[in-house]
Write a structure and sequence with these properties.
With about 220 residues, the protein is of the alpha+beta class. It contains four helices and ten strands; from the N terminus they run αββββββββββααα. The chain has two domains: about 170 residues, Jelly Rolls (Sandwich), CATH 2.60.120.10; about 40 residues, no CATH class. A hairpin with a 7-residue loop joins strand 5 and strand 6. The structure holds 2-acetamido-2-deoxy-beta-D-glucopyranose (NAG). 2-acetamido-2-deoxy-beta-D-glucopyranose binds next to loops. This is Germin-like protein.
């Protein structure tokens, strides 16, 4: 009976860990990142807690508009652990998103985070696509004050279909969510993936692949 209980506990524990979508629970009040440390851990080494200051938990600048003068008309201003060392081990971060009229945050995924977004100005058409085999597009038009969640790992995007600028703020469930922008990853890798491979994979003429590779 004891053995059975033990087995059940073990299975329950394994299940708990396997479905956990958040980063590991901190083992101390905080662990302000020390970017100068030579030691590498899963996250960043902690600064001496006695030397910690308020500025280690602080970032200023999300009131500033991002520069959207680029091909996609979009700019993200991240507040990840690289910008705010106090986020280290806390499993959370933030980003400001600016969109020119028709500007788009192109299809991308965050390998380590779910994202919850709210519109501060303007409106946004947002969406994500579920995994195979359904590949269902879940999409909605958001106005100021609306909130939308993009589940971890799924490909998603936002576009400003309005004639004025749009602004959103999003929170992410990782200190370092990672961004994989599909076009840049596929057509802009370094070194390039063979154009013949991409032509076959995407069922495109090789000349189109070469054109796309020149863009990204
Ligand atoms: C915005 O970015 C563009 C393109 O990089 C640059 O030419 C322009 O000077 C920038 N504008 C501001 C206000 O920084």
């Amino acid at each position: 009976m004891a053995a059975k209980n033990f087995l059940f506990s073990f299975v329950a524990l394994a299940f708990l860990f396997s479905v956990s979508a958040s980063e590991p629970k901190p083992l101390q009040d905080f662990c302000v990142a020390d970017p100068t440390a030579a030691v590498k851990v899963n996250g960043l080494v902690c600064k001496d807690p006695k030397l910690v200051q308020a500025n280690d938990f602080f970032f200023s600048g999300l009131h500033l508009e991002g520069n959207t003068s680029n091909a996609v008309g979009f700019k993200a201003t991240p507040v990840f652990v690289a910008q705010l060392p106090g986020l280290n081990t806390l499993g959370i971060s933030m980003v400001r998103l600016d969109y020119a009229p028709m500007g788009i945050n192109p299809p991308h995924t965050h390998p380590r985070a779910t994202e919850i977004l709210t519109v501060l100005e303007g409106s946004l058409m947002v969406g994500f696509v579920t995994s195979a085999p359904e590949n269902q597009l879940i999409t909605k038009v958001l106005k100021k004050g609306d909130v939308f969640v993009f589940p971890i790992g799924l490909v998603h995007f936002q576009q400003n279909l309005g004639s004025r600028k749009a602004v959103a703020i999003a929170a992410l469930s990782s200190q370092n969510p990672g961004v994989i922008t599909l076009a840049n990853t596929v057509f802009g890798s370094n070194p390039r993936i063979s154009p013949d491979s991409l032509a076959k994979a995407f069922q495109l003429d090789k000349s189109i692949v070469i054109m796309l590779q020149a863009k990204f």
